[in-house]
Amino acid sequence: MEMEHAIAALALLFVGYGIFSKPLAATIAPAPLVFALAGLALSATGFILFTVDPRSEVLLLFAEGTLALVLFGDASRLSLRKVVGMNAIAQRMLLIGLPLAILFGTLAALGLISGLYWMEAALLAAILAPTDAALGAAVVENENVPLRIRRAIITESGLNDGLAVPPVLLFAALAGYVELGAQGDLAFWVRFAAQQIGFGLLAGIAVGTAGGFAIVQAARARWLDPRFETLACVGVAAGSFLAAEAIGGNAFVSAFVAGLSFAAICEERTGMVAEFVEEEGKFFSLTLFFIFGLALAPVALAEFEWVYLLYAVLSLTVVRMGAVAVSLIGTGVKLPTLLYLGWFGPRGLATIVFVLLVFGEGIVSEPIRAIAYLTVLLSTLLHGITSAPFAAIYAHSRAAKADGKE
């Protein structure tokens, strides 16, 4: 019965937020914040006593499918030409800032959280490295913010969750060796990580290229009904996910690489995919934020410790901002822009899914799960509330005008 109540509440939430979505989106109440807090409120008040097994295969499949769809959609917007030509800010934050965020996060975890092996600390940092632009939508939708800065944030958040998958898999394998060492030696876990990444790459390239080629040829032969074109493209994303699962590769790596491969073959059709992912993907991701507030965030609150909160705060501030600042040394970017880019690195969908994935394998210890969920909850609140007002303030600053020039 509680399941029916949860579904009814979610349906009402979609209708209610949808009716007022335009004015709400421009305030301190973006959709992910509203959906997560609604779920948390329903759980805290006892109105809906909904629990979910964190190792539930249904929940994991839903979460994995949602992230895979988003990864494919984000990657499909980029051709190789666009990747090479992306602005220097985005390149540096991805190629230098992301590894530094993992390094700084690892050092902070080792210094604060007792009992963690270095690979577990690194796994926590990798899980918290990717960002989610949905939590700061006003940041990228405010047209007064220079296009160069908005494009850097969009590109970083669109690609860093895919780039975070290999380190998450590697450190999960090393942590698995520590936690489950009796089930295999170190070489076994390293081979496992390599297989996940390598087979994921192969599945993504094969399915993305073949699917893109088939769609292009069908369109040229006029076999493809335009009404089914988007579904055919999204079918490629699903195929990459399933192909990776079938051969023992990682579905996230496969979906991300499939999106890049698909874009290389039929770049002119990726706009439709992006539009579909933006709409349907939003439905799935908001549903996951609701489940997070209803059933996952209470886990973090139940296991709360002050040191966990301290790490969460450091992850959102010192770790993230420090990594961004170091990555942009030499670019001439002014301090207000550094702070703006550093602050708007919200944690969301990717972190939730990564925790579900590695916890489902029995690899993640409870402190790591609690810290990751607490960080997402804190990020949902802070970034959701500050996105619109901070974007408005920054947009009219001298730094925005100076650093916004291409």
Question: Which structural traits does this protein have?
Answer:
406 residues; mainly alpha; transmembrane helix; Na+/H+ antiporter like fold
Summarize the topology.
Elements: H1 2-19, H2 21-25, H3 31-44, H4 57-76, H5 80-85, H6 88-112, H7 118-127, H8 137-141, H9 147-179, H10 186-220, H11 226-247, H12 251-265, H13 270-302, H14 306-327, H15 335-343, H16 349-360, H17 366-395, H18 398-403
Helix pairs in contact: 3-13, 4-11, 4-12, 4-13, 4-16, 6-7, 6-9, 6-14, 7-9, 7-17, 9-10, 10-11, 10-12, 11-12, 11-13, 13-17, 14-15, 14-17, 15-17, 16-17
GO molecular function, one term: antiporter activity
Domain Cation/H+ exchanger transmembrane: 12-391
Pfam family, one: Na_H_Exchanger
